[in-house]
Amino acid sequence: MNASRKHFQNIESPRSIGFNKSRLLYVHDLTSLVFGCGAGILQLESQKGFGMFIASYIFVSLLFVVWICQLNPQKYFQNPVKDIFFNSLIRELAGFVMSWTFTYALLG
Amino acid sequence: MWSKLLIAANETVAELTLDPRLKLWVLLPISIVMILVGVIQQYTMVLLGPKVKSAPRPTITENQYISKPIAVLNNGVNLHEASFKIRQQYLAQVLSEGKYLALKGRNDSAQNILTDPNVSDAILNMAKGNLANYVPQTLIMWWVNYFFAGFVLMKLPFPLTIRFKEMLQSGVMTPDLDVRWVSSISWYFISMFGLKPVYNLLFGDSKLGDIELPMQQFVGGSMPGGPTPEVLMKDYANDLTIAQHESIFEGIEERILNMYS
Fold first, then answer.
1. Which of A8, A79, B30, B198 is least enclosed by beta carbons within 10 angstroms?
2. How many angstroms away from the CA of A89 is the closest CA of chain B?
3. Quick check: A91 and B153 CB within 8 A?
4. What is the predicted ipTM?
5. Do B195 and A22 touch (CB under 8 A)?
């Protein structure tokens, strides 16, 4: 009985996993661009700006875990820590830097 | 005292006053062009993209008859003894005869990967994708370099090391200007790396459909380089004929009693 229950737990739908990942990516993309604009409007420079990126990224990821995953991320992701916190880090950093630089130059 | 002053003078960044029209006529056009090129690229990829994969009916039948014995062997425990026997006999006979082979008596040794239409199609698609990526990027880079060269466009919000000076201040003839003041080509680089999230926001939903595509590619036809369908069928026929039926209901009373004892 236990064995079969374990067996059914391991069944994964690639479609659902892909959907969850794209949803997470959408949230990260949107928030990193918006926070980048915020950093540019505040005219933050060097370390403060990157600090804002790290703080906002961690805050959004935690919010995603608490609010959307209902504190149960392993139900929706195969490898929760890697998928939520590390997979799109570089990409979001690039997006953040772009919108940060853009608004910084426009307003500065 | 003097040395301190000198250091302080070196540390303060020279403030340049930039023409505000630079933002309107250089920064915005480059950004808009890059976003539009991304949109065009996306839609050309949709238009040039892979068509719906189709396979001739005999091939599909062949594949299904290859997966049938696997299903019977794996899930046969759920079947009645008699119905398992019927399936076993029928499938073993059909498979060993090769009744549903797509191409009977095909000379498999002469099969070349490059002549297989599916594979050459995939290679062509890959080439198209690469071309659609590199051609617009090269064109924009040339355009930015040609039209907007020779002046400082913007100030970066973060300091960079002196190594970036040559690349990011190309065309600005100053020996000791701070690296934070950069020319237009650096805005091109920054937005080239940073536009992916923007594209995702612009057409995020169309990407959802793309996830399933790679899996469907191998539905029709066996993988190149793998064993031929004929060999596979023979193997499964042998497996089936020696398979012993074992019902899931055997000894179930004892197991239930054990569970609840």
1. A8
2. 12
3. no
4. 0.84
5. no
